[in-house]
Amino acid sequence: MSKPLLSIGIIFKNEIRCLERCLKSLQPLRDALPCELVMADTGATDGSREIAEKYADILFDFPWINDFSAARNAVIERCSGQWYMSIDCDEWVDPNIEGYVKFLTSDKEFDFASVIIRNYSTAGLEKSGGYSDFLAVRLLRLSSGIRYEGAIHEHLPYKGDLHTMLIRGGIFHHDGYVFQDQTRQKEKQQRNMELLREQLERDPDNLIILTQCIESGDGQPEQLDYLRRAMAGVAEKRSQWELFGPVIYRHALRYAIGKDLPEFEEWLQTAKDQFPSSIFVRVEIAYFAFGYYWNKDDYAKSIYWGEKYLQGVEDYHAGKFNRADLLASSLYRTEASSRLSVASVLASGYLHEKQPEKCLKLMETFNGRELDAKQAGDCVRNICNLYSHFEVDTAPLLLRLWEELNEAVPTQAQADQRRAGFVQVGAEMFEGTFIRSEETEADVVHHAYTVFLPLGDRCELGIAAQMLGTEAVSALEALLGKVKELEKLPGHALAHALGCGARFPLENRPLTIEQMDLLAGGIAQDKDELYGLVRQAREKELPDSAQELGWARGLCMAAVKVCPWKEIDGETGLLLSRAFARVERAYLPVCYAPEVLNRENLFLLPPLHRFGYYCAQAFDALDVGDTAGYVHLLREGLSVCEGVKDMVEFLIDHTPELRTPSDELNALAEQIRTVLANFPPDDPAVAALKQSEAYQKVAYLIEGIEVPVMGGLAQ
Known about the structure:
Elements: E1 6-12, H1 19-25, H2 27-32, E2 35-41, H3 48-55, E3 58-61, H4 68-77, E4 83-86, E5 91-93, H5 98-104, E6 112-120, E7 131-141, E8 164-174, H6 182-202, H7 207-216, H8 223-235, H9 241-259, H10 264-274, H11 279-295, H12 299-317, H13 336-352, H14 356-363, H15 373-389, H16 395-405, H17 412-428, H18 432-438, H19 460-468, H20 473-482, H21 491-499, H22 513-523, H23 527-538, H24 546-562, H25 570-591, H26 607-623, H27 627-640, H28 645-654, H29 656-659, H30 663-677, H31 684-690, H32 693-703
Parallel strand pairs: 1-2, 1-4, 2-3, 6-8
Antiparallel strand pairs: 4-7, 5-8, 6-7
Helix pairs in contact: 6-7, 7-8, 7-9, 8-9, 9-10, 9-11, 11-12, 12-13, 13-14, 13-15, 14-15, 15-17, 19-20, 19-21, 21-22, 21-23, 22-24, 23-24, 23-25, 24-25, 25-26, 25-28, 26-27, 27-32, 30-32
């Protein structure tokens, strides 16, 4: 083989997960340039060596001695190229190798070259959007004689004026942090910290080592001590303080927020004054300051730092920063997810400060394809607030974002999540209580839900907005027919249509019981609306249609479940109870065979239907004047469905026929109390007395409604 231009060096141990991916990614570079691949095995036992044998030009063993620099330098000593490039097994070279080829085949004055290392934080890798970038010197002119230093976090010795070249478009992707389990992470942290403490003991003022201690010691009790020592070193302007200072303050401010330290604002001002142009100050520190002031409701300062952050991210992606900054550490918060999260909150801050034009201008920069579910929801909330409080045309923005977030980018599943977040928050604008509250706010110029009118029939929110704008029964039924997924229709819109007299369920669109319960539950978010629909149904004849009967049952059961029986007024509570009993009386024989609807077989019914069976009979007894039978049947219903205790107590306390027992009943109750007082509770005479007809007539006066119970309230 002719003398190589480039020697590629790798040290490895047990890297079976990722080694071949790394080696395959090097092939385009090896095809384009004269290369050699030199690999050191530091003790592999998992099959990694067999993979290395297929690719390496030179493969040798290097016994591990807890010193990364020693291993790296051993590889370099076996290289014969003009240039040396180092890559780790859990990294892979981006397919765009043009920058490497151009750099290595042209005249150059540099001894070093750097590449961006992109660290992914989630398994989705580049598609997930979660990553951080830092600049690493990975190419070295071998004739320089320079070698690695540091047993851990090894690096080529450099000063702040390092003469280096950035490989344009050169990216090493790295996913090693994603696939480490907690045990391995803890072991790695412990190993790193032991090595770093040894180095720090030998060189206590070294800002590089202190920075590495801060980063590797995250969560360790001595981390604050490292931070204070490092900041003191920056103040004293120790070697390379300008390079590592912004990173040290980045970590200090993150720590201060997490521990709620009072020094946050002092440290922030120092970082801003000393390192105003650093990309760490303009991006990460700005990010922390933005959140800090937002949580303190200081919108003016939060806006200042939010704008600074967004500009910093824009400059970063445009390359308008000193790339040498990234030699000190990784830069986080530059990906789309962080940018959109800040922008969404910043838009809300503009609204707080009555700056609608800035809010709209910022939101017009959003790309719906990049949003996650929460960001889509935040976006909708901002658009609704912008539209409802200011005279701003939001229709073009809303329509564009709706189309973008529904695109299957990067996957259909993520588009579905974005749409769900959009619809969930949008549905909040349709809640009856919210709409009524808007009518009391002086600065509301439009109901928020009307912002969705431009969506027309594209989604349930657009249809719901149209429904709330009409009372014509035929038009409402036509709109209901256009709803593709009824469960996504805001409950208030459905309640409005029903209140106006729209027939439901639609004749040509039957629903299952489960769908009916879900829709009734949506309406039940506004109890007053639900009670109004139950009252409306109570005033009509029971429907003949099984679908409509099932729907009436769904409304009544929802009312029973959500009613605050200890607080409801007597008239409403009795109306709900009678409506429930009336529907159960009609519904149960339709759905269950006669032999099931007897006391011996009631266990086959769901709990609330078991109670419905007794509740219907109880009101039948009450209506013929049998108050004792009424109470007895309610007690029996409670014994098979304990979840209705509050409802039964309400009925005992509020049924007019029971409020003033006759003198005869009071006298009988008093006689029985006297008899019971003469016997111990476990006497057979007591049990016999309680089975008597006389006792049953006044049991509720003596015992209340307490009985042994079983079962629950579930349908």
